[in-house]
Amino acid sequence: MPRNVAVLVGNGLSVAFNRELSLQSITEEVLHRIRKLDGDDVVKAMKELADRVLPHGANSNEDFEILVGALGAESRTLDVLNTLAELTEPEDELLRTSIKQVADFAEQVRDSGVAHVLQVIAERSRAYQDDSENLHALTQSIIDSHGGDVVIANLNYDTLLLSALLQTCKQEMADMGHGMQHAKVKLGKLGEHRVQKLRLEATDFPISRRVQLLHLHGSLTYWTKPDRSLQVKLDRDLVRGPHVWNAIRNKTSRIRPAVVLAARRDKAEHVAQQPFALAYEMFVKGLVNADHWLIIGYSFRDEPVNARLREEFLNRADKPKVLVVTYGDDPERHNVERAFGWGAEDEDNDWLTIIRTGADGAEKTPEWAMFTS
Predict the structure, then answer these.
(1) pLDDT of residue 341
(2) Is the Cβ–Cβ distance between 340 and 309 less than 8 Å?
(3) pLDDT in the model for residue 184
(4) By C-alpha distance, which of 268, 272, 259, 275 is closest to 113?
(5) The whole model's pTM is what?
(6) What are phi and psi of 228, to 5 degrees?
(7) Which carries the bigger pLDDT value, residue 94 or residue 326?
(8) Looking at the predicted structure, is the pLDDT value of residue 206 above 60?
(9) Measured CA distances, 235 to 220, 223, 241, 244, 304 (Å)
(10) In what order do the strands lie in the sheet with 211-215?
(11) 93-107, 114-128, 130-144, 300-314: least confident range
(12) Is the peptide bond before 331 cis (omega within 30 degrees of 0)?
């Protein structure tokens, strides 16, 4: 009998098949590039910002969120100031103009910094042959072991998983790119390109495709106008080169990456916007319709994600069968249970199994066989 599965993928999957995609390694390279830059006031501001928040460099995965959170913090603060100025001094045009000038500058700093972060990820967004074959084996096992719907929510910005799914189940898979709707966008020196629009509603997903790939926090390939009036998906080859990132820094592109690059406390606000809201909506539907939940390489530190898992888990009298694939002792079992709302006073948690040998080869383990049987 066909069986549905909901899959949640975190950074641990990418690292398992390309160690250069660890958050600490990415942060180190971004800091290195920013500190080497020469240029205008935007460059100087980025350097000062990086030195202020990470004066001793990147020492852990958590430093990634510290850096990207700092890049966007000033622009959000200025948005609040602009609102306050309109409320308290509605006739003071000079005040509002000054705030807008500073806000525009802060936005340039943020966009330039984000472009550096995503360019590093784009350049590393590939697995070498042996690792690629192993990733294909894992994704093939996920698809083949469940004959029903497979809803995959990806928290990574890279395209490793997308590439693997295109190799293993292209004819069965739909992501958030709308294959029937297109738009033209200008990308600096690359000129004008015809690209797919992003899906806007749940009904945009074709019912004939049983595998869905949802980027909960965006992707290297998802781009939007600042006012979100247009959201598109770029080809993978476009984002692998330097030109699209230079177009952002040179202000010769009217579209920006649609990604949630924010401090942990700010993510809930970001994921309420499109295209992330639709991705979360479809992920929740996947959880509701599946009795098997597979979680790979996720730290259980993302509260918007945990909230969706916990709400659907606690709503069920019959708990789903959950398999968590991680590497090493983190997260500990009680932290996983707590993320699902399972307390010490509850019954034995026979619903939860943890594989601690990592994503590479997980499909060959006895625990995997039991989960998929």
Answers:
(1) 92
(2) yes
(3) 93
(4) 259
(5) 0.92
(6) 65, 20
(7) 326
(8) yes
(9) 10, 11, 11, 11, 28
(10) 173-174, 211-215, 150-154, 5-9, 292-296, 321-325, 352-355
(11) 93-107
(12) yes
Cis-peptide, bond into residue 275, ω within 30° of zero = yes
Residue 107: per-residue pLDDT: 81
Q: How confident is the model at residue 346 (pLDDT cuts 50, 70, 90)?
A: low
**Which of residues 344 and 368 earns the better pLDDT score?**
368
Evaluate if residue 286 carries a pLDDT over 80: yes
pLDDT 10s digits, 62-89: 889 888 888 766 555 656 666 665 666 6
Which residue has tokens 């579209």? Answer: 255
Apex 114 CA angle, 83 and 8, nearest 5: 100
Q: Write out the two tokens for 369.
A: 């066989």
What does the block give as tokens for 357?
């040998």
How does the average pLDDT of the chain come out, rounded?
A: 89
Please, what is the Cα angle at 168 between 163 and 172, to 5 degrees?
Answer: 100
Q: Which residue has the tokens 């990415």?
A: 26
CA angle 246, 251, 257 (to 5 degrees): 70
State the distance between the two ends of the chain, measured CA to CA, in whole angstroms.
Answer: 11
Which pLDDT score is estimated for 116?
Answer: 92
3-state secondary structure the chain: CCCCEEEEECHHHHHHHCHHHCHHHHHHHHHHHHHHCCCCHHHHHHHHHHHHHCCCCCCCCHHHHHHHHHHHHHHHHHHHHHHHHHHHCCCCHHHHHHHHHHHHHHHHHHHHHHHHHHHHHHHCCCCCHHHHHHHHHHHHHHHHHCCCCEEEEECCCCCHHHHHHHHHHHHHEECCEEEEEEEEEEEHHHCEEEEEEECCCHHHCCCCCCEEEEECCEEEEEEECCCCCCEEECCHHHHHCCHHHHHHHCCCECCEEEECCCCHHHHHHHHCCCCHHHHHHHHHHHHHCCCEEEEECCCCCCHHHHHHHHHHHHCCCCCCEEEEECECCCCCHHHHHHHCCCCCCCCCCCCEEEECECCCCHHHCHHHHHHHC
Q: 37 - beta bridge partners?
A: none
